[in-house]
Specification:
The complex is a heterodimer of chains A (about 290) and B (about 190). Chain A is built from 16 helices and seven strands. In chain A, strand 6, helix 15 and strand 7 form a beta-alpha-beta unit. Helix content of chain A is about 60%, strand content about 5%. In chain B, about 45% of the residues lie in helices and about 5% in strands. The chains are: A alpha/beta (about 290), B mainly alpha (about 190). Chains A and B meet through helix 3, helix 4, helix 5, helix 7 and helix 8 of A and helix 1, helix 4, helix 5 and helix 7 of B.
Chain lengths: ~290, ~190
């Protein structure tokens, strides 16, 4: 991880005039979830000499992507053949609406894998191969994360984000995210809030001004900010801090010139409040000609 | 670990290929300076062999024994060495051959150690995600193949290779990524 000044002084920094960007979880997930989108994102980010993210974004990445892959890994150990895996996962996740996203992620992962392997191996061999690839992916994800950015801001000192996926001696993989409680504070989110209280209040005021047009996530964040104004330590709870996710990530990267995110509903407002340019590198660039024609 | 590791070995693997947890302490670990290595964990192939390993051993110094199809590995290294100076067509042909060989290596990897399987997964993920490897990428692909030729591997070997693949631009998550544009994340 390097600082802006270090990058600015390097060859890479001078070539790109050291433009700076702060990357949200939504973009980081797409960078590794979809090959087609990845190329688009990498091209869009290439103009930035300094690319940062937040440790809190890493926590969300772990929750949204690595934990689901971990479930897939666990499921793969319960079946004897790769072609039994989809049925196994469907049986357990398919009927529950709350598991829809997990189910989708698992099925997408399997489909992506199966689309790129040959059928000449036996189902049992293919299963070991799939397990090895999932294990390799999960255990290498933090390394990838570190290499994917120039710097990671750690304003909240999130303990859960710092806990890397690991493998136990019996082959199980630990991607758990234990709950945090106010009676055992292990991060600095409350201090981070106090230091940046003015910015959080600006965010709150803007969301309130937006009224019904504000997204549900932003409205939830307003409630949390209001409570934290009088007692920041209420943030030291997993259920609470999660509701402030995007705002935490944005404020953590408030030194950057530009934000890169794929959830416009939240990030347009956050960018405006913090005075940043917003880039959505996931969305295909509009062709001005086709716009004019339409 | 699945029982398949023991019962579905194919591809003419000898008894030597069965995973064995090496119990020797003090095995040479020339990669001890591994960055980011978590020395508190232990890992071995006990899930595959049903043997109990000694607890509280350093992660990097625990070895797992296995053997992959040596003929295929030698052929793969020959192909990697043939990339130098070849044109686009030759590079494509070489890469496709390499992919075929790596795929077939899974037949012997099933009876090998988890460390062998992890390195093979990294190697396969890499060669499936490129069209024309750079010299730097070829270097780490060759290193992975060389490691796979060793009977004894440690977690440190896996970590080093994974780290080198990532630093050469290979995402460990590539093979689980959609090739098509999918649903947007939140």
């Amino acid at each position: 991880m390097r600082t802006v000044s270090e990058v600015a002084g390097s060859k890479e920094g001078s070539q790109t005039a050291c433009r700076t960007v702060h990357i949200d979880t939504s973009v980081q997930v797409e960078r590794c979830k979809s090959l087609r989108k990845r190329d688009r994102i990498e091209n869009a980010l290439a103009v930035f000499g300094f690319r940062s993210t937040s440790s809190y974004a890493k926590l969300e990445f772990k929750r949204a992507w690595l934990r689901r892959l971990s479930y897939l890994y666990h499921a793969s150990q319960q079946v004897a053949r790769d072609d039994e895996l989809i049925e196994f996962i469907n049986d357990r996740l398919g009927s529950h609406p709350g598991h829809r996203r997990s189910l989708t992620t698992c099925l997408e992962g399997i489909a992506a894998f199966l689309s790129r392997i040959d059928e000449s191996l036996s189902p049992g061999v293919r299963l070991v191969r799939l397990q090895s690839h999932i294990r390799y992916a999960i255990l290498g994800a933090y390394k990838w994360w570190d290499c994917s950015v120039t710097h990671e801001y750690t304003g909240t000192h999130c303990k859960r984000a710092s806990e890397q996926p690991r493998e136990f001696s019996d082959g199980r993989i630990d991607v758990s995210i234990p709950n945090c409680r106010r009676n055992k504070i292990e991060c600095s989110i409350h201090r981070f809030f106090k230091q940046n209280k003015d910015i959080f209040i600006k965010i709150k005021d803007r969301v309130i001004a937006l009224g019904d047009k504000a997204s549900l996530e932003l409205k939830r964040a307003v409630d949390i900010i209001q409570s934290a104004e009088t007692n920041p330590e209420i943030l030291c709870d997993s259920q609470t801090c999660a509701k402030l996710g995007d705002a935490l990530i944005a404020v953590d990267g408030s030194d950057m010139e530009c934000f890169a995110a794929n959830n416009d509903k939240e990030w347009q407002l956050l960018s405006e409040v913090l005075g940043k340019e917003l880039l959505n590198p996931v969305r295909p660039r509009q062709d001005p000609k086709s716009d004019a024609e339409s | 670990m699945s029982h398949l590791n023991r019962f579905e070995i194919t591809g003419g693997v000898t008894a030597e290929a069965q995973p064995i947890v090496a119990q020797t302490m003090g095995a040479p670990d020339y990669r001890a300076s591994l960055r980011g290595y978590d020395g508190n964990l232990t890992i071995d192939a006990k899930g595959e062999t049903g043997q109990l390993s000694q607890p509280a051993r350093s992660h990097a110094t625990i070895e797992a024994r296995g053997i992959l199809d040596q003929l295929l590995l030698r052929r793969a290294i020959e192909i990697v060495d043939s990339f130098e100076g070849c044109d686009v067509i030759d590079a494509g042909v070489n890469l496709e051959s390499l992919r075929g060989i790596v795929s077939q290596l899974w037949n012997s990897a099933v009876g090998s150690s988890r460390f062998h399987q992890d390195i093979l997964a990294g190697l396969e993920s890499a060669i499936l995600s490129i069209e024309a490897p750079t010299p730097g990428q070829l270097s780490v692909i060759r290193e992975a193949l060389t490691d796979l030729g060793q009977k004894l591997l440690t977690q440190a070997h896996v970590e080093i290779i994974r780290s080198e693949f990532v630093s050469r631009g290979f995402s460990p998550l590539a093979l689980l990524s959609n090739t098509e544009a999918g649903e947007d994340s939140e």
